[in-house]
Write a structure and sequence with these properties.
By secondary structure, the protein is α+β, with helices and mostly antiparallel strands. Helix content is 37%, strand content 24%. It has 5 helices and 6 strands, in the order E-E-H-H-H-H-E-H-E-E-E. Strands 1, 2, 3, 4, 5 and 6 form a 6-stranded mixed beta sheet that branches. The protein starts with 5 loop residues before the first strand and ends in a 5-residue tail after the last strand.
Length: 131
Amino acid sequence: MKNEIDTIYILENPEKKIIKFATGYQLKYEDTIKDVFGVACLNDLEMMIQFNKPFQDSICTSKNITVKSLSLNQVIRIASKKELLQLREELLEQLGELPIPRPFDSVIQLQEGIFRWDEQNSSYILDKLGA
């Protein structure tokens, strides 16, 4: 049986100024949504987007969009390589030097495709073979 590749998401709550990375597993089975947004599940988050005016305003301001354009994708989306590199820089600042510990599984899915952890550079690199 082939292992499932974990997709990495970025969760963004502009009202509380929280940005957090999470795996698909963490979104489903851990309190990650509650930690970032203060609600129990994705359905509650959709209700919050629809009816919580201060939350709506904070998203619209941070994304420079109108209320009509609001969707769950503005606050939860698949992370990009660029965003993951920002996480790497933050870890590097905290630890001071390479190597940094692998933050997720050795093989992950980002917006741009499948990535593998490179121990030598402490970074994820695009898997040209497509895993």
